[in-house]
Design a protein that fits this description.
- Keywords: Oxidoreductase.
- The chain is an alpha/beta fold.
- It has one domain: TIM Barrel (Alpha-Beta Barrel).
- Helices cover 46% and strands 18% of the residues.
- Helix 1 crosses helix 2, helix 2 packs parallel to helix 3 and helix 5 runs parallel beside helix 6.
- It starts with a strand and ends with a helix.
Length: 318
């Protein structure tokens, strides 16, 4: 199993400087890649540049960036700019994000998200590999002055159309907060889509919340990251089948995150994450590998464990 580290995933109450602290630790411990997620606080490409400037070796992937907010050229330019100022390869991850972010934060309509993802991935599969002297986009009078950023193209996918997009254009497909059973099902869909597209299957990665020997604060942080999925189709069924139907119903009624965290037991975290003592976490890693996952992107709990040091140290590459 390959491991990478997510410096920042979704919005929570952690310190704004925590992502750079996580990235520095990941670099020191020998992880090969750090993900710089995008949200209401951090711009993914600025954070990618900050991580690249602060670290020595680790590669960086920016995103997933929401395709209804940024056009393909803006995404390619951001990645190339970050790569140029850091001297480090920078990858790009694409996603459709949520209506709450696209419309509620950016004020842009989240329309045709699957089609927008396909159009953006198709364009970026070429733009990210552009050469100096070529048009910045096909047909433009402006020429490229920066080389391509050198990192992989990742597509975050869950639905069938997004999986088809990943299979047709991406180097890697990304899942988020999934169980081994979901990995098995989605891996089969990816295999079939790649065969239909006539391409080698992209590698399959998943962002998974992780906390080795978690204290109460770390566990609450993990459960808080899960709470937002209790109303999402495809996830709510997994939690209901795992025995957490009461929490799913509570979420459907509009309960806030704090209420949902109190309602969720530890077992909810172990359903879609790596939580527990080191032996239990390693056994769960084996479950994900057997299900067909190629890479686990660790989203370390940092509450009560600055930088996620306990977890990242326990799982560091051999």
């Amino acid at each position: 199993m390959d491991f990478s580290v997510v410096a920042v995933a979704r919005e929570d109450d952690s310190a704004v400087e925590e992502p750079v602290r996580v990235a520095l630790l990941a670099d020191r411990l020998g992880y090969r890649e750090v993900w710089a997620g995008e949200g209401p606080t951090w711009d993914a490409f600025v954070l990618a540049a900050a991580v690249g400037a602060a670290t020595e070796r680790v590669a960086v992937t920016a995103g997933p960036v929401p395709v209804n907010v940024r056009d393909p050229y803006t995404i390619a330019r951001g990645a190339a700019s970050a790569a140029a100022v850091t001297g480090r390869a920078v990858g790009v991850a694409l996603g459709t994000s949520s209506k709450r972010v696209v419309e509620g934060v950016h004020g842009r309509p989240r329309v045709r998200p699957a089609a927008a993802l396909e159009e953006s991935a198709a364009a970026l599969s070429g733009l990210l590999r552009g050469r100096v002297g070529e048009p910045v986009v096909p047909g433009s009078v402006f020429t490229r002055r920066l080389p391509g950023p050198g990192g992989p193209l990742t597509v975050a996918a869950f639905g069938d159309r997004a999986i088809a997009t990943a299979a047709a254009h991406a180097d890697r497909m990304l899942l988020d907060v999934v169980s081994p059973a979901q990995v098995r099902e989605l891996r089969a869909k990816l295999d079939a889509a790649a065969e239909k597209a006539g391409r080698t299957r992209p590698t399959l990665a998943a962002w998974l919340p992780a906390a080795v020997d978690p204290g109460p604060a770390s566990l609450a942080q993990v459960l808080g990251s899960i709470a937002g999925y209790l109303t999402v189709p495809g996830y709510r069924e997994v939690f209901a089948e795992a025995g957490f139907a009461a929490a799913v119903e509570l979420a459907a009624s509009g309960a806030d995150r704090a209420t949902l965290v109190r309602a969720l037991p530890l077992e909810a975290a172990t359903t879609v994450g790596l939580v527990g003592d080191l032996a239990a976490v390693r056994a769960r890693v084996d479950d994900y590998a057997e299900a067909g996952l190629d890479e686990i992107a660790l989203v370390p709990a940092t509450a009560g464990d600055p930088g996620g040091e306990r977890t990242l140290t326990a799982l560091r590459p051999a």
